[in-house]
Design brief:
By secondary structure, the chain is mainly β. It has strands spanning 3-7, 10-13, 18-25, 34-39, 46-51, 57-59, 67-72, 77-82, 91-97, 106-111. 29% of the residues are buried.
Length: 112
C-alpha cells in the first residue's frame, strides 16, 4: 500500500522560504514520477510542480523561478523548496505519485 506523508509546512512572512518534504513508502520509488499540488481555501486544487523518474522537472507559471522540486531516491523523499513566498502561495500542499495516491497535505501560510 502506497503511503505519502508531507511535512515542512508552517507560517512564514512574505519573502521567506520553506522546504516541504514528501516521504514515500510502499512503492518502487525510483520508478515513478511525483508532483506537488496545492489547494487554497475556497479554490480548486491546482498543480504546482512535477518531477519524472529521471529527474526532469516542470513548474506552473505562478511558481516558476521561485520553487524547486527535487527527489532523493535513496531516502525515498520528494522535496519542494519554496523561496520568495507570497501571500497567494497560502494553501494546503499535497504530494502525489504519478497515476496514484495522494498525501494528506501540509498547510503553508504566508503572511503579508
Amino acid at each position: 500500500q502506497v503511503q505519502l506523508v508531507e511535512s515542512g509546512g508552517g507560517l512564514v512572512q512574505a519573502g521567506g522560504s520553506l522546504r516541504l518534504s514528501c516521504a514515500a513508502a510502499g512503492i518502487n520509488f525510483s520508478g515513478f514520477g511525483f508532483a506537488w499540488h496545492r489547494q487554497a481555501r475556497g479554490k480548486q486544487r491546482e498543480w504546482v510542480a512535477s518531477i519524472t523518474n529521471s529527474g526532469s522537472t516542470n513548474y506552473a507559471n505562478s511558481v516558476q523561478g521561485r520553487f524547486t522540486i527535487s527527489r532523493d531516491n535513496a531516502k525515498t523523499v520528494v522535496y519542494l523548496q519554496m523561496n520568495s513566498l507570497k501571500p497567494e502561495d497560502t494553501a494546503v500542499y499535497f504530494c502525489k505519485v504519478s497515476g496514484g495516491a495522494w498525501g494528506q497535505g501540509t498547510q503553508v501560510t504566508v503572511s503579508s
